[in-house]
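## Example pair
The file below holds two records. Each record gives the amino-acid sequence first, followed by its structure token line.
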Amino acid sequence: MTTLSQNLLDLSDFAWQRLRQRVEGLTDDEYFWEPFDGCWSVRKTAEGYVADGSRLPPAPAPFTTVAWRITHLVDILQAERTATWFGHTATEEPPPVPGSASEALAALDRAYEIWRGRLAALSQDDLDRAMGPIAGPYGDNDGTSFALHIIDELIHHGAEVGTVRDFYRGVRAEDPFPAALAGDLTPADRPALLAEAAAAQRWDVVRHLADRGFGVNERTSGGMTAAHLAAGTGELDTLRFLIDRGADLSLKDTQYDVDVPGWAEFFEQQEVADYLTARTRAGSGA
């Protein structure tokens, strides 16, 4: 039977992996993007970068940039209270506010490493025990409720970061496929473009991109290959084409950790599942 501690770790890790995939490739322009006047962000000062804020929360709350949201999440995950409220000791020093996208991702990785280590170290007694006076008005709450609160912060701020990236891309939307088909965009420029075409269900484009040397085993930012996506949507003809071009059906996506046949089964694409099963049997001589 799975323990409460392991369930909390699994939930936290799942939320973390989803966020980490959503921020992969983050640029400085996205990091600092302010779509409206009055956004809260992080600002450069003589002492370094500082996050906007107010002792009295404004109402309504201002729109916050990716920079502000990641900085806030870094602070939450490795705050001293994520150790002391459980009765443990915090020894890590708080990092400076990240002044670039690369610094932000490094800080985010480090913050999650710290939080996960603290979460993994909790005993059942830590989770069951009331936190006491150190937690102020939350002193009567047990450690489990606080652990769930931090995981909820990871989930909802992670969703906000992903949404702002979507907004950023939406206002700068461009169709990369014509440029690739014309030879103006190469596999070196955008290695995962064939997988992106599969994610957009542009199956005709998938074939043309393969002809132009785009890799069939590259992954989308969500961690899926074109073969995963073809199997999951029941696109059997395209899946056959990808297999002929060298698609590796044993590769597992990075979100669900499932191979290509597993996607066909999970998404109830019976024709695809039957084809892959028959292909495996034929290959094994059974």
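Second record, same layout:
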Amino acid sequence: MLPRREALTRAIALAGLAGLVPACAAPGAETPASPAGPDQEPESLDWRLVRLGDEPVATGPGQREASLHLDARTGRASGSGGCNRFTGAFRRQGGRLTLGPLAATRMACLDPAAGRTETRFLAALEATAAYRIAGRRLTLLDAAGAPLAVLEEATKR
């Protein structure tokens, strides 16, 4: 009998060969919302926010990028909302991912747009129920599988 993880990995591979799971998509194309496979792990990488909901996120001059780091060793999430730093717990099991509760510093955002982005980003993190990784992009999904935020790998390999 195969260990559970190996059996699941084989089942996913066979489904892909049978055409049940799309192998790839055109650059920039959205794939159906499905959780990440067991071999796609977002931990130990630094991610920077590039989309929030349907809107691209731009960082202005002198602004800090909104970012996320998941530390598998400690089970802690940390990063920046653009103005303030945050930290909290996370839990990942297969393609399921939950973050929070999150605690953030309370420094004022001098740019009101950056403050709104930060508020929405922190809310998206706490609403995350699953994730998908495609290439160097991490998509955080809500419980219904709708994208909340897209982050791009910032870690240099």
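Notes on the second record: The two ends are 37 Å apart (CA to CA). The chain is about 20% helix and 35% strand.
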